[in-house]
Every structure is written in structure tokens, then in C-alpha cells.
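note to self: dont lose this again. the chain is below, predicted strucutre after it. 277 aa total, dont forget to put it in the shared folder this time
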Amino acid sequence: MKVKVISILENNYMYLVIEEDSKQAVAVDPAVPHRLLEIVKREGLTLVAVLTTHHHWDHARGNETLLKEVPSLRVYGGDDRIGGLTDKVTNSQELKFNSINVRCLFTPCHTSGHMCYFVWEDNCSDAPAVFTGDTLFIGGCGQFLEGTAEQMYHNLTQVLGSLPQDTKIFCGHEYTIKNLKFALLVEPENEKVKEMLSWARARDDDDKPTVPSTLIEEFEYNPFLRLSEKGVQKFTGKTDPIEVMRALRKEKDKLKKPKERLPPHAMLALEWGLFRP
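---
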């Protein structure tokens, strides 16, 4: 099983999961459809399905265009607000595309219908992968836009945190440096955070992605997965893990927000190369 990482828009990722024997491919959050189709054509792939983590435009906007170009395509997701949705999935539902298996993991909080996708290939020694959208990031987690700290705690500790430790984490955005700066603020003595931040900056200098990480690595430096650590509890002034989660997110949200993003139509025009910023 091959996962192709495709950087799009300002800081998003879309992905192609490729079964190398059959050349069948499943796309995850293909928000820039023309670019996806160019890659599919260039690599001689057959696009059979789309997995959409949530309805936000920078994850789901490409679905309708892809359906027009590939009428046999199936678009999966857990929220009726997802454009082009053909198949609504539920928690623990499993999908199969030849030897590629997908387990749908319901993770409401960032949006009320957010779904993550755990993917593995039959008879393959490669580590499994999970596509986490805007729920789990490298070194961080998504904003609680339509949910609660209780939900995110469940998502990260019970749903995603219980996956095999070698699972590769493919998230929806390149937020790693920003997240690790916050992680260092939370745990200034954590050597793994310092090491990862230095590595992420070097990747950024080389214009390379920081995905994927692995679940076992996230437990070493991601404060949202380290709720019982003394340093994290000291930073928040809380000991109950859900209250630690709530306080962490509140402190993270206080940090300076990134510059205002271009509106969706302008972002897509930029991606098409119609104008330069």
C-alpha cells in the first residue's frame, strides 16, 4: 500500500491511497480535483473512491467535480453536509477496495460529523495508516468548533489512541511547527519536543512535508495525548484529564491567530495558478 502525500492550498494535504498491484486508488479529502486527476492520469491509476473526513470546503470542495469527471466514483463521509456524498458511513463500518481495507472511525468535535479512516492492506507488512483530517495533527489536535473537550478526549484516547502503535498518522494540515512551539511552551523540558521542532523546521526549510508521524511518536510530544503527564498538568493547573484537555485547547486558542486566509474562490484560483499572491 502506497500513500501519496499531496500539498494543496495554503497548508492542506490531500492523499492518494494506492493498491500497487491493481493501480486502483482511493483519494482522501481531494479539495483540488484538477490536480488530483492530473496525478491519477500521470501515474496510470484508476480512481475508485473518495474518503471525506468532514464537510469544510478545504477538504470536500473537490467531490462534485470529481463525480462529473468519474461518474462511477463513490464518495464516502459521515456528514450530510459533505458535497457530492454518495455513501454515508457510520462508526466502525468497514469498506473494501480489492486488498485495501478501510475502517470508519466517528470522531465528532471539530465538526459534528467528522470521520477518520483507518486503512490497511491484506497480506502486507506495511504499517497501517489513519487519515485524521482535522481531529489529530502532528503535535496537536483540531479546534472544538462543533463539539466538546469530552468528545475530543474520547477521540484521541479511546478511538485513535487505541490503534496499533505503529499506525502512520496522515493529518489534514501542515501545522507541525506551530503545534510543536505550543508543545514546548507546555513542556519546556521535553527533549523529544525540542528534537521534533528542530526536525520540522529543517523539513520546512527544504519545503518537505512532516507527515506522516506514528501514533507511538505522538504520545512522546503531543500534549493533547499527554494529559496525565505532570508537566502538562502543571501547565494547565488541572489534573482531571478532560479538564486538562479543555484547558490546553483554551490556551492554544489564545495564541496569535494566523493571518486571515483568502476566501475559498481565491484560494482555488491561486491553486490553479490564475494569479499570484
